[in-house]
Amino acid sequence: MKKRFLELALVLTMMCTGVFGCANKGEQEAGAESSAESGAADSLGESASDITSEAATQAGKTDRSGNPITVPGSVDTIISMAPSTTQILIDLGLGDKIIACDTYSFASYSADLKADIPQFDMMTPDQEKIVSLNADIVFTTGMSASHGDDVFASVKEAGICVCDIPSSASIADIEADILFIGDIVKKSDEAKKIVSEMQDTIADITAASMNIKDDQKKTVLFELFTPSAESPTIYTAGSGTYITEMIELIGAENVAGKEKDDWPALTEEAAIAMDPQVILTADMYTDDVINVLLGMSGWENVTAIKNKAVYQIDNDTVNRPNHHVVSAMIEMAKAVYPEVYKDLKDPFANDDAEEEKPAA
Length: 360
Description:
Blueprint: H1 2-17, H2 25-37, H3 48-58, E1 78-80, H4 83-91, E2 98-102, H5 103-109, E3 119-120, H6 127-133, E4 137-141, H7 153-157, E5 161-165, H8 171-184, H9 188-209, E6 219-225, E7 233-236, H10 242-249, E8 253-254, E9 265-267, H11 268-274, E10 278-281, H12 289-294, H13 303-306, E11 310-312, H14 315-319, H15 325-336
Parallel strand pairs: 1-2, 1-4, 2-3, 4-5, 6-8, 6-10, 10-11
Antiparallel strand pairs: 6-7, 7-9
Helix pairs in contact: 3-8, 4-5, 8-9
């Protein structure tokens, strides 16, 4: 029980501060506003070149949180302090230039990184050691400052370029983040290609969703943490999140999409009353989570449970705000509407990745 409470505390910390890709309005309002000023696309319909032009005007001036930065003429050494950013850098072909990272990044992407690079705690990094590495760029996340302190203040004072990227609340913001990173590390063309592939795939999804009639649209409950006797609360995605945007793009309705909070905590009674037709879970803490959901007492009459329409979505893919959220969207689409999206291809697929896990 103690372990589960510790896990729940970690989940809540991540949800409210950024590893899950959350934009907590209370803690990140200023970052979100400056993100909009620093090149976030106004709509998904903007072309990659349009966003690139906007992002380029900010490169070397302000980061995605609106902080002034001075970008070096060449970038040969990078420290990445967020898994979502680390994955972008690797996909830009810069894994070999990452000389240090956060512990989450190394746990997920060690195969693409040098084996002996230093690793730092995201919340309490060793600033003295970071300074001693003398990297050209240090990429940080708003999560690191979620407790109010600038845990990279000494790094900035040492004259090292620190670029902060607060977690994005929309797909358009994610695209702008990728292009900003591409500009900073001199990989604009590669970043532009990634964003174009994102937009092309989303266009394919949007086109396919037109075949779903209004009376065929399904309701979906997306859950981050499964309720249990000791923690009987469901944490889900509400308004103002890219996860709700993704659910809507595939032609479904998020049953919690109108909740005022971005990441609402639902009682079991409230979730049951929503009667979702499909349940998508990104719970990485509950063993055999699908069968746990199918067997929950009191849920027997929920449509998703009766029809065994319960699917597990890759946690890292859906919760890290970068181009791989498109892969999560494809997982969602094929789970909710398998016939509509059966031919949809994932441009960022890992050949070794598993398909979405269906109800057992």
